[in-house]
Amino acid sequence: MIKNIQQIIQDLLEFYDFKDKTVISVGAGGGQFIAYARVAKHVVAIDNDAYALEKLRENIFKHKLSEKFTLIHSNFSDITIKGDVVLFEFCLHEMNNLQAMLECGKRAAKDIVIADHGVDSRWAYVADETEKAKNSWNYIWKNKIQKSITYKTSQYFENYSELYEKIKNQGINSIKRIEKYKECSKIEIPMEYTFAFIIR
Length: 200
Fold this sequence. Notes:
200 residues; alpha/beta; Rossmann fold; 7 strands; 32% helix; globular
């Protein structure tokens, strides 16, 4: 699990001013980073994974943020909604048509904020997502980037079983890459994450 989620949230809040803005959150997932919503006007959270949205709903309730959120189970490309900023939450590297997704973002809001794996992240390598991250960032850099910053943290696991549960759905390459941790405890794997800000 991410060792310091609060630090990522703080970095995000310092990177972009969400205050009083309507945020369209794409790939909102389980809601690890929802604390930024405290300063936002409203968040429209879109995800095509119904299970992830249920986890998000639980986290929203737990953090007493229900009144701030509207949840939509859909592909982003099927939504025609407007806001102040589109936030892609660690999802662009998983999308097949990056151009279409960014064009959807530009139609939905003036500002686009991208949060995703850094290209040199050891965690992205373990999760077998390095190439996906490189491909997505190579495309993103072709746009008019106002600013981007890469940060460092780590993923922490008490033991191999916990790590395996996290990584098991990433495929055979990931499972092979964690074999060296089988006898280990208090496992820490470096992780980089990058934020980029695009203005339409």
